[in-house]
Amino acid sequence: MAAGKLGLDLAFASSSVTAIWPPTGIALAAILLGGRRMWPGVALGALLTNVHTGVPAVTVLGITVGNTLEALAGAWLLERVAGFDASLRRVRDVLALVGLAAVLSTMVSATIGVASLLIAGEVAWHHVPMVWRTWWLGDMGGDLLVTPALLVAFTFPRVERPPGGVLEAAALLAAAVGVSWLVFTQDTPLAYLLFPVFVWSALRFWQPGAAVVSLIIAVIAITLTDNGHGPFAMNGPDDRLLLAQTFVAVACTTAMILAVVTRQRRRAEDTLRRIASTLQEGLLQPRLPHLPQLEVATYFRPVGEAQQVGGDFYDLFQAGDGSWALAVGDVRGKGPAAAAMTALARYTLRAAALHETRPSAVLGGLNEAILWQHGGEDFCSVAYLSLDLGDGAARATTSSGGHPLPLVLRADGTVEQLGEPGLLLGIDANPALFDHRVELHTGDTLVIYTDGLLDAYAPRRFVSAEELEGVLRRCSGRAPAEILGELDESLLHDSPGEPRDDIAVVAVRIAGATRGRFRVPSAQLRRRGDDREPGEDPYRHGSAAR
User: 3-class SS at 158?
Assistant: First the structure.
């Protein structure tokens, strides 16, 4: 009722017709939030607001009926026709509020109310179009300005935090007040200065920010315009209020749509990030097999904020002949397509290893699968090693399909490159692939990596093969997890900016003679700025074989 009295204080054409009518928005929000059972309260509020306006009782009754039916009709149209969500989380909800409630349902009150005034002789026939327009636009402004603010206030999730903080919110409110005061105290048309404020509120504070800023600007605009200030003051009393309110209502609607789109994008990015993280964890083995003859550590550093699944992967599994296979690969691209390609590569390698003993033959099987599945449009690189394990020694056979060649750090500190590079997989039906055998002894460490280790920061910085081998030589005698930590510290830690490519490294050391129970240490280092707790060691270790 207080909002109605405030609106009637701005009535000029008739004591019951005003260009500003907030109760329309309050009534619609009450029905949407509380259900149709709220209609007696809406009717009582309309009756008490209009009973002292000096018009006949039949006119007051007609206006009361019109206001009540308007709110009920607006809620019915929104819920039954548009499937309206009161949280305004979709663009369609904002558009439905504009089209079905603000434009259509307000015609009910305007038509019934003006007819009631006409019957009572309060309005002449030739004034009906002007009075109806004023009534309709005044109610429309209430739906566009007041209803969104009330709906957002009662439905916006308290646990969902917009990007803007407290200090930024205070700055936004100060800007809204200051710019509004400037715009509506000058006769010069400066209304365009308010649009950055609306955009700021929508992008950083979503629907709550857009609704609050719109109300603040509306109050200042209507107050100053009613007192003859601002760019709309050259018109008549009703017209200038209608223009001021319509301007703010249109800007508010635009800000609300922008806020919805921004929030939807943020939620989509969060969902994508969660899916990507889940996929990445599934595509990278979280726990490698426990073998007494090996000590294993892994390093993985994704690009950016892990919003897309990377193409790097590693796998350790038992082949069909009883040997152990270690594969490290790099799939072209990122996102769902890369995830599908990575899954194809991992499980094709496992299937091929059940029947083939030569690494080159296993990679050949993967090459056929990629060509059959993708028709030469996608490719990947893979380094594949077959390990025949003994007690304190191993025989490794390796083959590379377009992948950086594996390195072996000998126990005496020398570094050797294994094999020769073959063709990328998925490009040619008969790729050149070669097998290379090497004997490994206690303390020797295999290091297999993706090309991101060398050129993650290209073109500003490349890591040369000589530089990589030099770091490995300094790590002679160290455990695999310590070697990976040294690689990160020496080659990647102080690099400028963010890497442009994923980095995956696997280090495998041949253990000595074994007794008792053994576990393979698996360390995984993720990109700085990830979800580690402050002070948490970036490595997640198992127990080293002793």
Answer: coil
In terms of Cβ atoms closer than 10 Å to its own Cβ (0-12, 13-18, 19+), residue 94 is: buried
Q: Which of the 8 DSSP states describes residue 193? A: G
Q: What is the DSSP string of 452-499?
A: HHHHTTTTT----HHHHHHHHHHTTT--HHHHHHHHIIIIITT-SS--
Structure tokens, 243 = 């223009």
Burial class (CB in 10 A: 0-12, 13-18, 19+), 234: exposed
CA distances from 133 to 136, 223, 228 (A): 5, 21, 22
Distance CA 312, CA 357 (A): 24
Strand ordering across the sheet containing 445-449? 294-301, 503-510, 445-449, 407-409, 415-417
Looking at residue 281, what is its pLDDT?
Answer: 64
CA 96 to mean position of chain CA atoms: 25
Q: pLDDT tens across 78-98, in order?
A: 999 999 999 999 999 999 999
The Cα–Cα gap between 394 and 519 comes to 18
Q: CA-to-CA distance for 231 and 247, rounded, in angstroms? A: 11
Torsion on CA atoms 176, 180, 183, 186, rounded to nearest 10: -140
| Residue 32 CB neighbours (<10 A) | 24
Write the DSSP assignment of 264-316 as a string of letters. HHHHHHHHHHHHHHHHHHHHS-SS----TTEEEEEEEE-STTS-S--SEEEEE
As given in the structure block, the two tokens for residue 262 are 């921004």
- Spell 57-70 as b/e; 16+ CB within 10 A means b: eebbebbbbbbbbb
424 and 376 Cβ atoms separated by less than 8 Å: no
Counting beta carbons within 10 angstroms of the beta carbon of residue 343, is it exposed (0 to 12), middle (13 to 18) or buried (19 or more)? middle
For 170, the enclosing helix (H) or strand (E) is: helix 166-183
Sign of CA dihedral 88, 92, 94, 98: negative
pLDDT tens-place string over residues 285-305: 656 788 888 999 998 887 755
Contact 232, 244 (CB under 8 A): yes
> How far from chain centre, in Å, is Cα 202?
16
Distance of alpha carbon 496 from alpha carbon 482, whole angstroms: 23
Q: How many residues does the chain have?
A: 546
- pTM strictly above 0.70: no
Supply 433's token pair: 């692939």
Span of 56-65, 268-277, 328-337 with lowest mean pLDDT: 268-277
Distance (Å, rounded) from C-alpha 423 to C-alpha 5? 82
First vs last C-alpha separation in the chain: 81
Identify whether the C-beta of residue 291 lies closer than 8 Å to the C-beta of residue 279: no
> Among candidates 110, 154, 157, which has minimal Cα distance to 131?
110
